Amino acid sequence: MRLADFIRAEIEPILQDWEEFAKTILNAKHMSKTGLRDHARDMLLEIADDLDTPQSESEQIAKSKGFEPTSDEESWAEVHGGDRQTSGFSVMETVSEFRALRASVVSHWTKAYKDIPFEHPEDLTRFHEAIDKAVAESLEQYATEKEMETRLFGAILLASPDPIYVLDLQGRFIYANKATADLFALPPEEIIGKSTFDLGFPFAADFQHNLEKVMADQSTHRGKFVHTFSSGQGDRFEYLLAPVLDEQQNTEATVCISRDITEQALAEEKIWHNAHHDLLTGLPNRRLFLDRLEQEVKHVKRSSLPLAVLFLDLDGFKVVNDTLGHEAGDRVLQLVAERLTNCVREEDTVARLGGDEFTVILTGAEHQKDVELVAQAIIDAIAMPFDLVQQSVLISTSIGISLFPENEMSSIAMLEAADHAMYKAKKSGSNRICFYQAFDSTDGNSA
Fold first, then answer.
1. Nearest CA to 400 among 439, 380, 427, 367?
2. Is residue 339 within 8 Å of 382, Cβ to Cβ?
3. Which residues are paired to 350 by β-bridges?
4. Which of 84, 114, 236, 309 could make an SS bond with 418 (beta carbons 3.0 to 4.6 A apart)?
């Protein structure tokens, strides 16, 4: 039997051997059976057709030296080379496929005719030449695709507005695109070979720790850092670290893609601030106040440090709104917020719950008298005239106070207790202080 006929007849067993080999190639494991076999099948049939084509001695000599007519049509070997390059195969993996294909054909052929002399020994020679040609065509196409990919990838890196760089196993830069050089305000030659420590970046320690973890675990990591580079671009960045693996699946480098998220972060912070602060006064609103109060109550339960909640309602504020208008009323509320803030420490919280109701969280006041002194300072501050464009106005405030752990209760209950005490203060003549007690309420002195 001619080798060409043998290949056609035994193509399935040959391809089965080929599939077993393909399973050992890393980048072939994710490919379908069809994707693996199509190129091999078509190349074998193409070689079989070539073996059937008569060949003169001069043509045989030329072919053996690699000289033969070229075709404008793309061969299956060229298709194979381009496909394997885009599929992530290495050069050695691509060549090894042809070696396996050659070995499979020869093995089946010799087993079938081990006791019978070859009728056409030149078939085997022509087969080897055809395989060699296929290897050359495949690798040429592989190289062409690789060069194009390299050019395209280089163009993408150059055009990318995001800083992209590659670091070696010691965390030194081995590649930096133009966006990176622009961000660092350094020429590439002053970046390559340096680490983030060498460049004096304050986030270097945290970045290096994450880099080492990515290399060791062969995992990706998303991180953030805050820094204003010499270029003046942004100050908040996010970055993605991903390992680069060699053919043996060992980490050989790490690629980092970073992005300036300053505008996005500021927009998110503005949204959060507006959702948690009173737009008129800038003070924390009810939502943020209750969140902070909840945290403070939890802290008090752990530390046993005292906590006080003051609930304030302005006396006479409605008259200002009714006689001078809401614009004047809004200005008074803003000035009240400033005076309240000046009466407490930075670690305390002043909030506006709505309307003319304000609250204060005082932390660490050892004695009730200390809380009363702060409350009296607030009453005195609010009692001072408010100078508006139209005229000066006078208002006052009534204050209810709940204490923890004296009245051990939840954060919501503390606020409600202070509110209850405030109403008692207002009913007793306004401009007064009242401490909440579970079974009895005692008034403080009037301002």
1. 427
2. yes
3. 360
4. 309
Interacting residues of 426 by C-beta distance below 8 A, sequence separation 6+: 313, 315, 398, 432
Q: What are phi and psi of 248, to 5 degrees?
A: -95, 10
The residue with tokens 């079989």 is 48
Give the Cα separation of 7 and 20 in Å (integer): 18
Q: Is the pTM of this model over 0.70?
A: no
Main-chain dihedrals φ then ψ at residue 115, nearest 5 degrees: -105, 5
Return the structure tokens found at 446. Answer: 């009037």
- Rounded to the nearest 10 degrees, the angle between the axes of helix 122-159 and helix 33-52 is 140
* Sequential pLDDT tens for the chain (447 residues): 688 888 888 888 888 887 777 777 766 666 666 666 667 788 788 888 888 887 666 666 655 555 555 556 777 788 877 787 777 777 887 888 788 888 888 888 888 776 655 566 677 788 888 888 888 888 888 777 777 776 776 776 777 888 999 999 999 999 989 889 999 999 988 999 999 999 999 999 999 999 999 999 999 999 999 999 988 887 899 999 999 888 778 899 999 999 999 888 889 889 999 999 999 999 999 999 999 999 999 988 888 788 999 999 999 999 998 888 999 999 999 999 999 999 999 999 999 999 999 999 999 888 899 999 999 999 999 999 999 987 899 999 999 999 988 777 889 999 999 999 999 999 988 789 999 986 554 444 433
- Whole-angstrom Cα distance, residue 214 to residue 355? 53
C-alpha span between 186 and 188 (Å, rounded): 6
